[in-house]
Design a protein that fits this description.
There is one protein chain. This protein is an alpha/beta fold. It has one domain (2-155): Metalloproteases ("zincins"), catalytic domain (Collagenase (Catalytic Domain), 3-Layer(aba) Sandwich), CATH 3.40.390. It has six helices and four strands; from the N terminus they run E-H-E-H-E-H-E-H-H-H. Strand 1 (2-7), helix 1 and strand 2 (39-46) form a beta-alpha-beta unit. Helix 1 (16-30) packs across helix 6, helix 4 crosses helix 5 (115-130) and helix 5 crosses helix 6 (139-155). The longest helix is centred in the last third of the chain and has 17 residues, at 139-155. It is globular, with a radius of gyration of 15 Å. One of its GO terms (biological process) is rRNA processing.
Length: 167
């Protein structure tokens, strides 16, 4: 997958691109459909105010959140692509994710983890949403998505974010 990564204030400038690439590689190991060479996606590291505006405009929720994902493919189309055609064919846009700095930093502090580890979890969460996984559908789907997250994060040396929680 090719990723277009944009870092805006208030995120510090260094290291986020490499983090996103490591997370995308780990995501492709647990959800191989994300490893297709024709896929492209974007990741925006921005402010709570920007994510709040996006959440209000596109989801009708008038509040900030930690990560938003905007899938451009249905899961069935992504799975078909994963089995389809040589990589020389044109790129296929998977979607966008956006992370809110202040919410991410606050949640990381509350959980007692680094902002880098929490951002990695949120990027992974967003990528899995782009791949068609959705924890809001059912408990079974939530457990499936969480298991993929835990497995991918372990590959990155990041502890299970759900351990000891009922989330």
């Amino acid at each position: 997958m090719e990723l277009d990564i944009e870092i805006e204030e208030p995120w510090p400038a260094a290291g986020w691109e490499a983090l996103v690439m490591r997370v995308a590689d780990a995501a492709a190991k647990v959800a191989p459909e994300l490893g297709h060479t024709r896929l492209t996606a974007s990741a925006l590291f921005t402010s709570d105010a920007e994510v709040h505006a996006l959440n209000r405009e596109w989801r009708g929720r008038d509040k900030p959140t930690n990560v938003l994902s905007f899938p451009m493919l249905e899961r069935e189309d992504l799975l078909e692509l994963a089995q389809d055609g040589p990589p020389e064919m044109p790129p296929v846009f998977l979607g966008d994710i956006a992370l809110a700095h202040e919410t991410c930093a606050r949640e990381a502090a509350e959980k007692g983890v680094s902002i880098e580890d929490h951002a990695a979890h949120l990027v992974l969460h967003g990528l899995l949403h782009l791949a068609g996984f959705d924890h809001e559908i059912s408990t079974e789907e939530a457990e499936k998505m969480e298991a993929l997250e835990v497995k991918a994060l372990a590959q990155l040396g990041i502890a299970d974010p759900y351990e000891g929680s009922s989330a």
